[in-house]
Specification:
Belongs to the PEP-utilizing enzyme family. This protein is an alpha/beta fold. It folds into four domains: 234 residues, ATP-grasp fold, A domain (Dna Ligase, domain 1, 2-Layer Sandwich), CATH 3.30.1490; 90 residues, D-amino Acid Aminotransferase, Chain A, domain 1 (2-Layer Sandwich); 135 residues, 3-Layer(bba) Sandwich (Glucose Oxidase, domain 1); 259 residues, Alpha-Beta Barrel (TIM Barrel), CATH 3.20.20. The protein contains 37 helices and 31 strands. Helix 14 crosses helix 21 and helix 28 packs across helix 29. It is elongated and about 105 Å long.
Length: 906
């Protein structure tokens, strides 16, 4: 594949002065934004970016592009001339970092190596140039540690253990207290670890270090944690990563140096202010790793006011330029500020809504762009419950509120246990001193994450915010002992693995035991119990209210509800439903009515069958009257009975035991025997593909006509009461137009009879579900007898894929997701290439036959954000989903109508 790719590429390496923020596909997010900051005249250390195209060639062929080495050499020469020093030279060496940078932010998922160019020879030159032996040997040990783990595949714990042993020997608590002599010994120890574990010496040639690091970054694109993160975030696997080679600036040169991360607004709340973390005498990975607790960014004003003022000015410049929350990494080297990275920052769901409306009010973006800054998934997060503040909870600690939400679960102390227990149905909280990229599996599996170290910019915080997971970081009062699988809270109480704890990502509070939860204020708003106001909760409600109003004004798709009773219908209407897209009548036959259905199934004569249907008719009519009243003036699509009749009968094993016991006791069992015979008669090997849907209506005389009569009479009664019923009758599981024609003729006759008897004109639309591949392929014919199509994408997915959903999700879907066969379950998000192509083709064919054909979808995909966009694109008229997902569908329908390919705020 490399032969096909290389001729189309002009070059593989770009200087920071050559790119801009719009070249993310080619330069990755980090490289594009470093170039943009350079263009803005901000203090960016000089460097260059190796493109994602070079990475793709390498990943395709296993070899770097032929031209890459010469291009890197040319850019390195230019960098050396600009800096006035050479890579790794013995006196005053140039050092560089090699950092990954994909199009979409993947924090901590790929590799970085700092201090490249240091060797046994150049470390002395660095010490002399800096006037600081300790700094030079600290930088060298960091290089060997990072290079050994990242490039040579040495177990990182071996370096950590050696570092801990050095501190114990010295009798100090943190690595900054190790002297130059201690670090020099540590370098020797680290080199021995590399030799033993990697089978080679640590490379002393600086160019070899750089070339191997570049390859390691390319390889990290296909690392396990990177692939897992991409699946979780639905990032395409074929993008590749760019590599940024940047001249080093040093934050570990003493107290007048340091490194930090800053946000132009609070990523947790969206509020404006000074947010971020700073760490004196440190390099960048120290902040995100959480190995030393940082100070708030505001403290930098006291530590170094000149740098602080300059940083505040740059942050304002960047936010106004990007017109969004910016996440910034910076280093101060002996009082001089350097910008190492900026990107549109990850944020919590609440922050996303607040920031979008703030930026509209500031005139930085318009409503259309604001809709692209929020997502249905974020709205769904805001609808989850929160802790009851009135509850008498046992708070034991408080950390940093890193990612909001109320999470309750059993404490676990490693990712393996979190995944294992989660798969067994347990809710868990992952507790760590600090997380690292290897903990991603456990973070995904957990309800929430709790760490005793780190701040809002630590690995745990950044990844949790991106995933929408509850997270509390830096709870310093907790003593976390991962080896003994326990933590000690203030007062000496020990929390063992398996003990239940609760964490509040909005306040940072940690509780023992399970804390009760209360409804979200956003749900209370949708329910009409809360109105926009002034306090913090109401401020969020105000932001949600405004974004929903934007979406409702912009969207073309209407949103209906899947609802089977008046209570659900009323709730759906409060949530903004514009009708019912699916009323499943089989749910009306449960409970006390099951006996009537049993009589219908057991009927031996027409008279018995008629008696059963006559008893069911008024009950069905009452159901429909209540639905029409709840949805007065809005369409109500009623699906006639769909599931196999045996589902209304007792379990075959249970019934067999009852009959056998009755026979052994010589007790009367005639009814049970008749039931057992009926169960055997109706038993099917694959009932989902058997006697159900329209087939029932054709072989059980009077069943569908009874339901149609109940609908028609209910509509007539509501009309007589001055109501406005808008009933639509949906025939399920149609595979051929002839089935629909027969049922429709019978339904039309019944409706005419009711009209004549009541003197009421009824306009009842009759349509069908498209849930079989044959129906989709013959949609043009079926449209001759149907006034509307509703795509039943749950069954359509089953029949297209040949999956039995109840079986496959539990058996092999996990393996398919892990192996990347699925990016996401096709039952969660519509399979556009397979199921979606049938939906598109059926919609087009149906409208060619009947241009005014109404098109909707009533499977669970109707409330899935990504699927809603697809349904908008193929021209459906509405989506239907559960009441709780209606706001999500409304928001996404608005976003779909205003979709901008230039917007991306992952």
């Amino acid at each position: 594949m490399s032969e096909n790719r290389e001729p189309h590429v002009a070059k593989f390496v770009y200087d920071f002065t050559e790119g801009n923020k719009d070249l993310k596909d080619l330069l990755g997010g980090k490289g594009a934004n470093l170039a943009e900051m350079t263009n803005l005249g901000l203090p960016v250390p000089p460097g260059f970016t190796i493109t994602t195209e070079a990475c793709k060639v390498y990943l395709d062929s296993g070899e770097e592009p032929a031209a890459l080495r010469d291009e890197v050499s040319a850019h390195l020469d230019a960098l050396e001339q600009r800096m006035g020093k050479k890579l790794g030279q013995a006196n005053d060496p140039l050092l560089v970092s090699v950092r990954s940078g994909a199009k979409f932010s993947m924090p901590g998922m790929m590799d970085t190596v700092l201090n490249i160019g240091l060797s046994d020879a150049s470390v002395q030159g660095l010490a002399q140039q800096a006037g600081d032996d300790r700094f030079a040997w600290d930088s060298y040990r960091r290089l060997i540690q990072m290079f050994g783990k990242t490039v040579l595949g040495v177990d990182g714990d071996l370096f950590e253990e050696a570092l801990e042993k050095a501190k114990e020997t010295k009798g100090v608590a943190v690595d900054t207290e190790l002297a130059a002599a201690d670090l020099k010994k540590l370098v020797t120890t680290f080199k021995k670890i590399v030799k033993k574990e990697a089978g080679r010496d640590f490379p002393q040639d600086p160019r070899e270090q750089m070339d191997l690091a570049i390859k390691a970054v390319f390889d990290s694109w296909n690392g396990d944690r990177a692939k897992l993160y991409r699946r979780q975030e639905r990032i395409p696997h074929d993008l590749g990563t760019a590599v940024n080679v940047c001249s080093m600036v040093f934050g570990n040169l003493g107290p007048d140096s340091g490194t930090g991360v800053a946000f132009t607004r609070d990523p947790a709340s969206g509020h404006q202010g000074v947010y971020g973390d700073y760490l004196q005498n440190a390099q960048g990975e120290d902040v995100v790793a959480g190995i030393r607790n940082t100070v708030p960014l505001a403290d930098l004003e006291r530590i170094d006011k000149k740098s602080y003022d300059q940083l505040m000015q740059i942050m304002e410049t960047l936010e106004n330029h990007y017109k969004d929350l910016c996440d910034i990494e910076f280093t101060i080297e002996r009082g001089r500020l350097w910008m190492l990275q900026t990107r549109v920052g990850k944020r919590t769901a609440g922050a996303a809504f607040r920031i979008a409306t703030q930026l509209v009010d500031q005139g930085l973006i318009d409503e259309t762009e604001a809709l692209q800054r929020v997502t249905g998934a974020q709205l769904a997060q805001l609808m989850f419950p929160r802790f009851d503040e009135a509850a008498k909870a046992g708070q034991v600690a408080r950390g940093i509120a890193a990612s909001p939400g109320a999470a309750v679960g059993k404490a676990v102390f490693d990712s393996y246990t979190a995944v294992k227990w989660s798969r067994s149905g347990e809710k868990v909280i992952l507790v760590r001193r600090e997380t690292n990229p290897d903990d991603l599996d456990g973070m995904i599996a957990a309800e929430g994450i709790l760490t005793s170290r780190g701040g809002k910019t630590s690995h745990a915080a950044v990844v949790a915010r991106g995933m929408g997971k509850t997270c509390v970081c830096g709870a310093e009062e907790l003593e976390v002992d991962t080896k003994r699988r326990r933590m000690t809270v203030p007062g000496g109480h020990v929390v063992e693995e398996g003990d239940v704890i609760s964490i509040d990502g909005s306040s940072g509070k940690v509780y023992l035991g399970e804390v009760p939860v209360v409804p979200s204020p956003v749900v209370e708003y949708f329910e009409g119990r809360m109105h926009p106001g002034a306090d913090d909760a109401d401020e969020l409600v105000e932001a949600v209210h405004r974004m929903m109003a934007f979406a409702d004004r912009k969207r073309r798709l209407r949103v209906r509800a899947n609802a089977d009773n008046a209570e659900d219908a009323l709730r759906a209407r409060r949530f903004g439903a514009q009708g019912i897209g699916l009323c499943r009548t089989e749910h009306m036959f449960l409970g006390d009515r099951r006996e009537l259905v049993e009589r219908l199934i057991l009927a031996d004569t027409e008279a018995e069958r008629e008696a059963s249907l006559k008893a069911l008719l008024p009950l069905q009519k009452k159901d429909f009257v209540e639905l029409f009243e709840a949805m007065d003036g809005l369409p109500v699509t009623i699906r006639l009975l769909d599931p196999p009749l045996h589902e209304f009968l007792p379990d075959i094993t249970e019934l067999s035991v009852r009959v056998a016991l009755a026979e052994s006791r010589q007790e009367p069992h005639e009814n049970e025997l008749r039931l057992l015979q009926a169960v055997h008669r109706l038993h099917e090997q694959n009932p989902m593909l058997g006697l159900r849907g329209v087939r029932l209506g054709l072989v059980i005389p009077g069943l569908f006509t009874m339901q149609v009569r109940a609908i028609a009479e209910a509509a007539a009664e509501r009309k007589a009461a001055k109501g406005d019923p808008r009933a639509e009758i949906m025939i399920p599981l149609v595979g051929t137009v002839q089935e629909l024609e027969i049922v429709r003729d019978e339904a039309d006759q019944v409706v005419a009879e009711v009209e004549a008897a009541t003197g009421t004109s009824l306009k009842l639309a009759i349509g069908t579900m498209i849930e079989l591949p044959r129906a989709a392929l013959t949609a043009g014919q079926i449209a001759e007898a149907a006034e509307f199509f509703s795509f039943g994408t749950n069954d359509l997915t089953q029949t297209v894929w040949g999956f039995s959903r109840d079986d496959v999700e539990a058996s092999f879907f996990t393996a398919y997701l892990e192996k990347g066969i699925f990016g996401v379950s096709p039952f969660e998000t519509i399979d556009k290439d397979g199921v979606g192509s049938l939906v598109k083709a059926a919609a087009e064919a149906g409208r060619r036959t009947r241009p005014d054909l109404k098109l909707g979808v009533c499977g669970e995909h109707g409330g899935d954000p990504e699927s809603v966009h697809f349904f908008h694109e193929v021209g459906l008229d509405y989506v239907s989903c559960s009441p709780f997902r209606i706001p999500v569908a409304r928001l996404e329908a608005g976003r779909a109508a205003t979709q901008s390919t230039g917007s991306d705020h992952r």
